[in-house]
Specification:
Blueprint (H helix, E strand, L loop, with lengths): L2 E10 L2 E10 L2 E7 L2 E8 L4 H11 L11 E7 L5 E7 L16 E2 L27 E2 H13 L2 H6 L3 E6 L5 E7 L2 H14 L8 E4 L5 H9 L4 E4 L5 H10 L2 E7 L2 E6 L4 E2 L9
Parallel strand pairs: 3-6, 4-7, 8-15, 11-12, 12-13
Antiparallel strand pairs: 1-2, 3-4, 5-6, 9-10, 9-11, 13-14
Helix pairs in contact: 1-4, 4-5, 5-6
């Protein structure tokens, strides 16, 4: 249930008229770990297990990509929307992120809101050092491909998308959610479940880029990150430090590269995503 219809009043210079609009659903999902509450995420229902698996990876709660925990339905509401999921993870596999339990509400628009303290904003791992290069013509094609798969956005105008591709432009996963970082977590979880995460070289997102999306991209070891809208200053700083080539304002066959432009080139031949 990604969208719902709502009645409204459309007001313009010609008067006031009733309208029925399709809006993107936002519902709370409580995520438990071993039966204990870990965090609450405001998300668009659907692909919830992918969301949980991606979040566990991005937050460093479970660093072992080869281990997929049981993620079981614990509760749903009267409309059939899942409200509680429980992930069973052996204690020896719990990572450092588990001790930083996000006890506050994690809302769809701001990932930092769920952190217990600013000192929790730590990452572990070596910066991405790749010799891969990408054709800017491919970047433009990736957004065309992602746009074609944004079915919820076409309906409601209120959903973000994230997609993962190979370096040649093959689509590996595309997900939508009311939250930008939720869409990214769903993609990462999907890649892990499909054992395709090592094939992912480019991550595209439909909105702006925050530092948190850069970190999620880094945790998935994806070297190229591209967005339709602007990056934050901290996102650019992190991308430079973590070895991620960062593109923003990717629209109308234009883009701005803010980090590691040495990995880009422009060919005379247009590459097409498939």
């Amino acid at each position: 249930m990604a969208t719902r219809n709502y009645e409204g009043q459309k007001i313009n210079s010609s008067g006031i008229n009733k309208t029925i609009d399709t809006l993107t659903v936002e519902e709370a999902l409580q995520i438990n770990i071993n039966g204990e509450p870990f965090t609450v995420s405001m998300r668009t229902p659907g692909h919830d297990q992918n969301l949980v698996r991606g979040l566990l990876h991005s937050e460093g709660v479970l660093d072992d990509q080869s281990f997929n925990p049981d993620i079981l339905l614990k509760q749903e509401n009267d409309e059939g929307v899942v409200t509680i999921l429980d992930a069973t993870i052996p204690k020896e596999k719990l990572g450092h992120g588990y001790s930083n339990s996000r006890s506050l509400l994690s809302v769809s628009s701001c990932g930092i809101c769920g952190k217990t303290e600013l000192k929790d904003l730590k990452f572990i791992g070596k910066a991405i050092d790749r010799t891969d290069k990408i054709d800017m013509n491919t970047i433009h094609r990736l957004f065309e491909k992602m746009n074609e798969g944004q079915f919820n956005f076409i309906e409601s105008g209120g959903a973000h998308a994230a997609a993962a591709f190979t370096l040649k432009g093959d689509l590996l996963s595309i997900m939508e959610d009311i939250g930008r970082h939720n869409a990214v977590d769903k993609v990462i979880g999907d890649l892990i479940f499909k054992e395709n995460i090592n094939k992912a070289k480019v991550l595209t997102v439909s909105g702006r880029i925050s530092y948190e999306i850069v970190i999620k991209c880094f945790k998935a070891r994806i070297p190229f990150l591209a967005a339709v809208s602007a990056p934050s200053s901290l996102a650019v700083d992190y991308a430079k430090e973590l070895g991620i080539t960062l593109f923003a304002f990717c629209r109308d066959r234009r883009a701005t590269c803010y980090a590691h432009p040495e990995r880009t080139f422009i060919s005379s031949k247009n590459a097409k995503a498939s």
